[in-house]
Amino acid sequence: MYPASFEYHSPTTVKDALGLMGKLGDDAKLLAGGHSLIPMMKLRLAQPKHLIDLRNVPGLKGVKEDGGTIVIGAMTTWYELETNAIVKAKCPIVSETASIVGDPAVRNLGTIGGGLAHADPAADMPATAIACNFEMVCEGPKGRRTVKVDEWFQGLMSTALKEDEILVEVRVPALAKGTGAAYLKFPHPASRFAIVGVAAVISTDGKGTCSKASIGVTGAGTKAVRAKGVEAGLSGKNLAGAGAIEAAAQKGAEGVDVQADLQGSVEYKAHLCRVFAKRAVEAAAKRAG
Amino acid sequence: MAVTEDRLFGKSIKRREDPRFITGQGRYVDDLKLPGMTYAAFVRSPHAHARIKGIDTTAAKAHPGVVAVFTGKDMTGVNSLPCGWDLRKEKGIPGVVQDLAMVPHMPLTSDVARHVGDPVAVVIADSQSAATDAAEKVNVTWEPLPAVTATDKAEKGPKIHDVPTGNVAFKWALGDAAATDAAFKTGGAVTVKKRIVNQRLVANAMEPRACVARYEDATGELTLWVTSQNPHVHRLLMCAFVLGIPEHKVRVIAPDVGGGFGSKIFLYNEEVVCSWASRKIKRPIRWTASRREAYMTDAHGRDHVTDAEIALSKEGKILGLRVKTTANLGAYLSTFAPAVPTFLYGTLLNGVYAIGAIHVDVTGVFTNTTAVDAYRGAGRPEACYVLERMVDAGAAALKMDPAELRRKNFIPKFSGAFNTLVAVTYDSGDYAGALDKLMQVFDYKKFRAEQAEARTQGRLLGVGFSTYIEACSIAPSKVVGALGAGAGLYESGTVRVHPTGMVTVYTGSHSHGQGHETTFAQLVADDLGIPMEQVEVIHGDTGQIAFGMGTYGSRSASVGGTAIKMSLNKIKEKGKLIAAHLLEASPKDIEYVKGQFQVKGVPAKAVPFGAVSLTAYVPHNYPEGLEPGLDETSFYDPSNFCFPFGAHACVVEVEPETGKVNVVKYVAVDDVGNVINPMIVDGMVHGGIAQGVGQALWEGAVYDNDSGQLMTGSMMDYAMPKADMLPAYVTDRTVTPTPVNPLGVKGAGETGTIASTPAVVNAVVDALAGLGVDHIDAMPLTAERVWKTIQAAKAGK
Predict the structure, then answer these.
(1) Alpha-carbon gap, residue B678 to B698, rounded angstroms
(2) Are B285 and B38 in contact (CB under 8 A)?
(3) Which fold has domain A7-53?
(4) Which residues does chain A have within 8 Å of residue B291's beta carbon, measured at their own beta carbons?
């Protein structure tokens, strides 16, 4: 497992990193933890000639609050998200999701920015990103722009991030009062990636009626998607009512381009989307109170 | 000299090898650094089946740092890798219906590649990176050919070798066909027929295979460091069969080896190529498999498709068993491949039951897949799985409790000999005793009540039993020779007592996780009544050890340990002569007690062990005519196999919504005869259970039958069991010492793997029994497979 030879760059500013990207073009890949990229390089499925490591760029790491928004540096590791007090207090589902990404080695080096930019179809955080309405801040030669999560995931390992941009920041709205959230997955027995993972953010009026539902589904298709059918089915419904959640969860696979593989047929994975939609909504609703 | 008070035999002593393993100080093949070292990278077939039209090595040879590039055509005078087990009628080997086709297996194939990963060239360079880079520059012109990978499609698939009938490697049968037919026609007999698929597995030793070959031009000596379970066997096969080089000029060393599970028994292409190439380039060469190469090229295990039938009387007596198996051997014949689905499989189908009649029929087939050979249990897990599934299916058909049905059919307790219907003689057994003990430990009645209660809540709880037997401590050389083995299966053990009374033990067994350095030291210290610290165990080096057949088939303690015990006896006999001389007594009046030679019944009139050893090397006052020195070697060839047995119970809960199986409880009662180190035996049982549960629920090597590609070629795809997927096991034992060897030990390395797979599958079927399920034909029982079974059962209602 020896990668092809490559040149390693370690810029110390975003501007320098962008400059290197401009100069090296397609021959370069950004390194943001490397727990997806390096294994692909070792298998020689990826052979970039240059790696631009973002780990020594100050300001890309860490968590801070900006009003009702949690601002997460793109190079913040899964472990930091798992243990960060602000994230745990203001949007615990993000901590919880980060805590079940990969294994300890992955969580200690892998980053939220690397994960969201890589957009593995079976990654965990994309579901939570959709349910929590993340915003991605991208910086390019012409400055910064913000992309809403619904525009972010565009296809198999493809996002709205442009070739000359770096994902620098993730903005996460703090959960409002009366809101509960949960991410649950059916893990692949080997990789522990999500065969299906569903994140649900549920707001209630205090009397058990759902005022807002936001649901993200990962794993089953080529990209993480919003389960609009489930959201619509929950809105305005009293969740304590018999079968209310189960009925809405029946649309858990709607809009998911379910892919068959060794871990499941289309039929089975679609079924898991419905099961995990139900389970995630139930867990979130319980937390919403 | 300190003398131990208690017996060390039977004590849970911590493993002396572990501190070096867990602090990263083990010395593995890949740790070896030699002056002038070069590194090898193999060019492998990306196709399952393809003709080689040409290999252009020009660009690779020109790559910076490259020392040499070789293809199969360069390896003139080199022979095929040998298959060490023959199945031919003319040799008088029993059961042969169609002779084994001894197809060639060249170290680098030069005509046709027959599986993904088949090596066609080697690049040797000054660095691993240069070798790997240059290997990508070897340009092979392929003509892809149609391929077949599925076991049940092999016979009608595209031809892989020049064999008389479509991809058939051999046909073999055992048992009495006429008696079995008659048993199935018994009036009132209830018969059940099931398809049973025992899927292909990847051994996945933690350390990948590796070798370093060093040829020294000055002396003409070749040293091969290799991840081997049996370095002497590697040396013999490589020298005598493949390379034709003198055995006494070759030294094979298997240093610390990180697991084998059978996959490191065999002689592989890479070590042969590196040994040959080192003689060409006159520099040492190192090769270490990547995990991807390990998945593609380490011998796989199992891969049987079986149709089994059982006939029972209404009262539940097993009247007959008829088994028809197709065994996938892969693209080539691995070293012991033909033995696994024949003599290690058919001979175990009698199980622990008194069965009316048995017949088994096996067809070995070639496919475009990695070769299949022995993998932990080797044939015996396949036999146990067929039998224990069929017993449960029979119980279901009779609506009889599966434990009760087993009890009705057990062979009664015996010692000495029980002749089975399938050509083996059990050594000793108390099968009901093991189940009784299991039932005490596992409160069966209480469980059935819990299960009934759970069903009312829609929860699917199930229990599965497995009352197994296995044949280990292989084996009497004469017997295996008559069955087709190309080797004897004895073991050597040398006990070298140094002048100071320190002892070095040289064993032909090899430890690659089994803990021999502890167990054998314990055995020797116990026998001599000296502290364990005085005993060192050396293994894994043909330059130091007389000979060795190695470690597999749970044979180290029973065969290797007995060879050591025989040498200990010789040491003590010689010591008595020396002591008698010193004590001015008659040798027949001398006994050895707790570290000293003494006049019988007179402990005060004694010479300590160390004084005798010193005298042996400083023989001033010494018996006339006796050779100096205290150093004895023995070869032990057992008179029979040993047959461990036991009873396992597994409790599972199935999630109705997803089909996911959770293992809730696992209870194992094993009888492995006497136990030298209970902690080590428990560890082997634990690991074995994990492997067997892994097969039942998660593991499976999957090939795409159209492309022939291995779909599960990494740990991201192939699901190994992990600690958090398994419960804390409850283990217990009964002890029925074997009369076969003086230690009374049977073998513990494989029992867990053999017993657990059917216990888990039986438990899942039991959990679904309320839905009308009585069988699931294939493993692993992935969540989807179980969910689909549930859906089908519900739809059927």
Answers:
(1) 29
(2) yes
(3) 3.30.43
(4) 1
DSSP B102-160: -----SS-SSEE-STT-EEEEEEESSHHHHHHHHTT-EEEEEE------GGGGGGS---
What pLDDT digit, counting tens, does each position of B756-770 carry? 999 999 999 999 999
State which fold the B32-145+206-259+264-297 domain adopts.
Aldehyde Oxidoreductase; domain 3 (3.90.1170)
Q: Is there a contact between A256 and A273 (Cβ–Cβ < 8 Å)?
A: yes
Q: State the fold for domain B18-24+490-636.
A: Aldehyde Oxidoreductase; domain 4 (3.30.365)
Six-digit token string for B510: 């090899």
- Shortest Cα distance, chain B CAs vs residue A90, angstroms: 30
Cα distance between residue B745 and residue B754, in whole Å: 18
CB contact under 8 A, A271 and B716: no
The CATH number assigned to the domain with range A63-173 reads 3.30.465.10
Q: Using the beta-carbon criterion (under 8 Å), do A268 and B787 form an inter-chain contact? A: yes
Where exactly are the structural domains of chain A?
A: 7-53, 63-173, 179-288
The architecture (CATH level 2) of A179-288 comes to 2-Layer Sandwich (3.30)
Q: Select from A2, A44, A263 the Cβ nearest to the Cβ of B128.
A: A2
Contacts of A44 in chain B (CB under 8 A): 136
Every domain of chain B and the residues it spans: 18-24+490-636, 32-145+206-259+264-297, 300-475+640-796
Inter-chain residue contact B784 with A186, CB threshold 8 Å? no
Tell me the HSE value of B282 on the side-chain side, using a 13 A CA sphere.
5
Q: Tell me the angle at which helices B678-697 and B751-768 cross, rounded to the nearest 10 degrees.
A: 40
pLDDT tens-digit map of B394-436: 999 999 999 999 999 999 999 889 999 999 999 999 999 999 9
Please give the ipTM for the structure prediction.
Answer: 0.96
Residue pair B434/B734 in contact by the 8 Å Cβ criterion: yes
Give the DSSP letter of residue A261: B
Residue B99 corresponds to which tokens in the numbers above?
A: 């002779």
**Assigned CATH for B300-475+640-796:** 3.30.365.10
pLDDT at position B5 is 55
Q: Which residues contact B360 (CB under 8 A, 6 or more apart)?
A: B173, B174, B175, B322, B323, B324, B325, B345, B346, B349, B422
Do the bridges between strand B357-366 and strand B318-330 make them parallel or antiparallel, or are there none, so unpaired?
parallel
Q: Are B717 and A186 an interchain contact pair (Cβ–Cβ within 8 Å)?
A: no
